[in-house]
């Protein structure tokens, strides 16, 4: 770290040194125009360098960043006036000091000061303006880079927050699903039904899916459908003859991928509707691909004890709506309706998103 700072400081010193060396050469040749001697012009230029450097740095590192950039225009104008008065006095003093240093009290026509103070002021303030201009341009690009870095940092932070929130939403679905399934297994073990071991194996397969596949952004649609079928098999063991289910899955390409655990909350919600009822639960599930759009339809019967139902209150359903918004933005369509004793869920998502 110290070496890096040292190298950065050394680079700055070298660049500034080269700039002021170039200014010295400019002064030397500028003041030697027509009839002045180069050596005398160089001595005169050296006398002007301190006031030029001091005034340039005063504007570049004090007045411009602290007042002009911060829109303190009155203070900038006031302090700039003071700086110009002081610098003008120092330029006059430096010009005559250089003259006295080089030639004593003898006035000769070929000395730079003989060209007039206006000529000297023009040269000095031209350099000051250029120096301040370079400083402003450098600060402008530094600000742009800083803003770009800040923007990228904010975007990265927002992305991480969205990823964390998405993971959190998925993790909320998993415990809800496991809670229901384990309760079912518990009930089967209490009655010592032979279906309990098979249900445990199905649950093991689903846990394997949850632990490994759902950590990915996308999974094959075929794998997701198999996951739904395993879940349905578990529910068949629980409902027995009280369940009538129809599954229609159209043929589709094996390359299609979707976010994991996308359809389960809807299916889970459908089975929840029949949980507290002794009526026959009728469920129909349909999945098809139409023109690069995946259509998922789920239809389940509504029991007469309607007060036990709330199609918008399920933890899984609420979270899946947030997930859809995170992943697809406005590129998806979700409709939940009640028609003639059935709840109908229709979800349409792009397959090429």
UniProtKB/TrEMBL annotation:
Keywords: Kinase, Membrane, Transferase, Transmembrane, Transmembrane helix. It comes from Zunongwangia endophytica. Its EC number is 2.7.13.3. Pfam families: His_kinase. The chain crosses the membrane at residues 12-33, 39-64, 76-97, 117-137. It comes from the Bacteria. Residues 165-243 form the Signal transduction histidine kinase internal region domain. GO terms for molecular function: protein histidine kinase activity. This is Sensor histidine kinase.
């Amino acid at each position: 770290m110290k070496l890096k700072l040292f190298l950065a400081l050394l680079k700055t010193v070298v660049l500034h040194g080269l700039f002021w060396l170039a200014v010295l050469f400019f002064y030397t040749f500028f003041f030697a125009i027509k009839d002045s001697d180069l050596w005398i012009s160089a001595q005169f230029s050296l006398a002007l360098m301190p006031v030029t450097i001091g005034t340039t740095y005063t504007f570049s590192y004090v007045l411009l960043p602290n007042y002009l950039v911060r829109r303190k225009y009155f203070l900038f104008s006031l302090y700039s006036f003071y700086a110009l008065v002081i610098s003008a006095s120092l330029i006059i003093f430096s010009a005559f000091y250089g003259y006295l240093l080089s030639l004593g009290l003898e006035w000769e026509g070929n000395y730079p000061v003989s060209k007039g103070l206006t000529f000297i002021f023009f040269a000095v303030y031209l350099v000051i303006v250029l120096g301040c201009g370079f400083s402003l341009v450098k600060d402008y690009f530094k600000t742009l880079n800083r803003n770009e870095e800040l923007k990228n940092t904010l975007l990265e932070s927002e992305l991480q927050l969205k990823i964390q929130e998405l993971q959190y939403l998925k993790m909320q679905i998993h415990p809800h699903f496991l809670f229901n399934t384990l309760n079912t297994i518990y009930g089967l073990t209490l009655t010592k039904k032979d279906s309990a071991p098979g249900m445990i194996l199905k649950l093991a397969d689903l846990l394997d899916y949850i632990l490994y596949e759902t950590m990915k952004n996308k999974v094959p649609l075929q794998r997701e459908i198999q996951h739904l079928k395993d879940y349905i098999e578990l529910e068949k063991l629980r409902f027995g003859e009280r369940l009538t289910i129809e599954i229609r899955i159209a043929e589709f390409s094996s390359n299609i991928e979707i976010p994991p655990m996308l359809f389960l909350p809807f299916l889970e919600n459908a089975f929840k509707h029949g949980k507290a009822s002794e009526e026959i639960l009728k469920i129909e599930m349909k999945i098809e691909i139409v023109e690069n759009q995946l259509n998922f339809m789920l239809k389940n019967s509504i029991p007469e004890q309607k007060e036990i139902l709330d199609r918008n209150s399920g933890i899984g359903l609420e979270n899946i709506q947030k997930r859809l918004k995170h992943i697809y933005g406005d590129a998806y369509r979700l409709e939940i309706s009640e028609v003639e004793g059935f709840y109908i869920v229709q979800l349409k998502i792009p397959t090429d998103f």
